[in-house]
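Q: Could you fold this chain for me?
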Amino acid sequence: MEAHSEDQEQIDLRSLAKTIRRRMTPLLIVTGAVFIIGLAIILTLPDRYQSTANVLIDRRTTEVVDVSSVLSGLPADSASVDTEVQVLRSPTLIAQVVKELDLAKDPEFNELIAKPSVMDSLTGWLKSDDKDQEPVTAEAKAAKTLANNLSVVRQGLTYVISVTYSAADPELAAKIANAVARQYIENQVTEKQKAARAARDFLGDRLEGLRSDVQSKESAATTLRAQIGLPNAESHSTYDEQAIADLSREALERRSALAEKQARLRVARSAQGNPAAVPEVIASGVIRDFKAQRAVAAAKAADISARYGAQHPETERVRQELVGIDRELSAEMSRIIASLRDEVSVSQSQLAVVENALGSRRAESIRNARGSVAVNQYEREAAASRGLYEGFLARTKETAESADFSKPDAQIISIAKASDSPAAPNRSLLAILALAFAGVMGILAIVIAELLDVKISNTTDVERHLGLSTVGSAPMLEKGETALGGIDANLSSYAEAFRIISSRIKKNGASVLMVTSSLPHEGKTNVALSLTSSLAKMGAKVLLVDTDLRRPQLTETLVPGKPENGISEVLSGATAIDQAVVRDTTWNFDLLGVSAQTQDREVFRNSNLSKLIATLRAQYDYVVVDTAPVLALNDARDISSVVDDVLFVVRWRRTSRYAARVAVKALREANAPIAGAVLNAVDVRRQSFYASDDSLAYYGAYKEYYAR
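A: Sure. Below is the predicted structure, expressed as structure tokens.
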């Protein structure tokens, strides 16, 4: 498989080489013509001069004032440098340069006032004349021309940008390159100044709003503090807390005093019915005196009762004295209880007053706290607005100072200078490219010629397009040489070709052969005559039959003046075969030609044709029938049905494969026994350009074997 693939690749390469060799003429013509035209165009191209100005993107951040908080410079990163490259190419900047230099009045930038060049004349017809297209201004055309000739390139990964302009005038090229770089720097300063002024206006408006906001919030805080009676935001909370603590402590003390008095009252009430049980805690000086008197009286009563008895008058008197003392003691206790009750009532009133004051203070403290929250909120908002106001005030001052001082973020590090030598066109390179393009067009011409070539050139074409095998290939006759002369030259390649064809026919065993072609002038008559002569020279008895009734070239060549009897008379029965056959003693074969009296053009549809062929097959070793072209007349189709084999003649580099395909199809529809094709009139000197599988393609290698 690998060997086969390698061989196939070599065959393809050889085929490509053959194609180029046989199409050398159109290749050279097209290549030469295109190259000459290209050279003419190259020579008419005007010289172009280039000038370059270099711009450095400044990474330093030196500032006279701190404007970075308001207007920042360019960041020192690769993307920012690439962005500035696009800025230098921007239509706005280009339009500014056009206006600054008044380029719309320069003929190089305005085709309406420029003289047309040769190139413009050659390409002017390609431009569409669209009446509906909007008119383009001179400034727009100048800007487009400038943009087309402007090159802005970053130098590697550096911060340097090269601005290059190409023009017919070196001074103009330098002028425009410098103008683009200078306009870029000026635009940076202008934009910074515009931004500073816009920032200043914005900050001024914002500053006025913040000032009003601070004033309104401070006024609201002051008004609210006055409404709720807060001394100040810091002391009102401590004041309320101290007042509540004092009232709480006083209330606690009064509750304790009240509880003590209530306890004494309860004790006094419990002892009111038993004066002797009055506790000491409530005993006043009077009570103590009464209790001392009662004790003395009680002791005296006990002693007298024990001494005199219970019924003794002294005992009764002492007992009455005790009752009197108890009565006085009860009266004193009632006064004490009434006094204690009054004290409890007073203490309760005082406690109520303190508790009411404490509740009021606590309620007021809550109101103050709530008001304090609102006041604090206003004060915090006022403080925040004041901070913003002070910040904007500082930025406003910085912006006001920076509006008059703006430093660009780039600088021109080298200006463009007029060049002494043109940078374009590179005529040497263009000539090489023109030659390469011419070569491509030449190859394209070969491809087109191959695609348009419908002529049959080799046996491969015969097999591919007609589906026929090739019986043989016959070389072209020398100028002025006849077919019989070629056969007579035994040492010629022509004679050898027909010996090969005759051998193959003899091997096939066919005795009646029809020779035809698709169209006239393809050499079928020469093939029939040469085949007949070759078979005769091999010792066979051969009859050559001319059936081309309209153009009987065989008869006219071999029998000048035409015979009196021919095939028409034989088929009609007017003449016997032996009377119509003419013997050619020079070439040793017989001829059944066309008589001068032939009028019937439908003789081959006569049923006698098959009988005639059968008779001739019995009398001759070979019968060669030359017919009219298949596409010209129907005769060949009628005759093909009664012969043994049909030889289809194809003329080298003349027969169209389409015409031959139609003719072969017609023969097959007539059930013709097509033995194969004969490739006729092959140019042996050029066949090697067209074929690899044809013996005549290698004629140059073995031509020494032939006399010619």
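A (continued): Residues 313-402 form the longest helix (90 residues).
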